[in-house]
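Table S2 (text version). Query chain:
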Amino acid sequence: MEIKSFYNSRLNEKMQYTVHSSGLRVYVFPKKGFSKYYAIYGTEYGSVDRVFRVPGEDKMTEVPDGIAHYLEHKMFEEEGGGNAFDRFAETGASSNAFTSFDLTAYLFSCTDKFYENLDILLSFVNKPWFTEENVKKEQGIIGQEIKMYDDDPEWRVFFNTLTAMYHNNPVKIDIAGTVESISHITPELLYKCYNTFYNPANMVLVLVGDIDIEKALEYVDKHIDASRNLGRIERKKVDEPKERVQERIVQDLVVSLPLFRIGFKDNEVGLPSDEALKNEIATELILEALLGKSSDLYMELYEEGLINGSFDAETEVSDSYGFTLIGGESKDPEAVYERVKARIKKAADKGIPAEDIERAKKVLVSGNIKMFNSVERMGNAFIRQIIAGYNPLDFKAAADKVSNADIQRRLAEHFDINNCVLSVVMPAK
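Corresponding structure-token output:
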């Protein structure tokens, strides 16, 4: 295996990477002198991957909603009654896992015994164990989790926004599925999903800390079989109209103040990585310039008591979906909605002042630099960037390539005030 390196002299940060004979992509970000280590091991597999074709099979396979999240839960349980969480606890490591729309990841952080913990991580993720009994048992546990999220205001205002935006895309479906959908999950289906998506060529290992990449690769060799490389997985593309489903969606739950999200559906998906990155940065610059904490609109809304410190914005981009969400708490979400739309229209008509764009770039680049002080933030951000085809150490260079023309085009294309949605959770009466 050839180990390559990339060094950013401005950041004084290095990236080492290689492709294992199995197809696994391994990235190490050495942090000399750091006492903390972080590892994240992820597969390009999430809740939106409901219909796919396994290499070598003729027909598409359709699986129940929530199976990716279900599989994540089951992976920690080991044959013989053991549990990977307990093994990590014995070494003093903190471990966790998560499932998103397009990523399932397993991770740990520690200050000691890094390679022992890496051994545990690679061991349990590469040795699934599913039985009728333990799969059935998990249905009750995850069923309770689903019911809990059904009553969670933050979760509901988020997914209600997606429901209002998307007609057919499975991104609108709760990551954990429903109580009914998970009742159809079997050991056979779990093994099929595991063997398909947990093949090394579909996975990425990111390590951050004072780590020797060659020593780390010895553990990769120990646990990962090169013959498991399946090749390309075909995922069913969904036809999704550009138009929203509905403009408003309101739900009553137990909250002290109304929660709201303003959603913009991204119809520019499936782009080459450089174009996707340009769009993502342009979107973040627009959000910072128009709605960031130093913007005129933010100060006006805050001083009028229409928003508080919870007000924020985020953008998410993938091959098959994309969206921008703006929101927080407000005594009058409708008023904030109209003011945000008016500010976006003004920017689209008259442009965003160059000085506001430059200020926004400084904020974004500064935030990126601060991230390098945290091994956790680095690992969580970098695995997504690597999967998307971005260089994690080259953010400033990428941001500098985004022109004012790119920003105005993105503003017109993505921030369509005639196609946005408003999701509100109101205090139950």
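Notes on Table S2: Residues 132-150 form the longest helix (19 residues). The radius of gyration is 22 Å.
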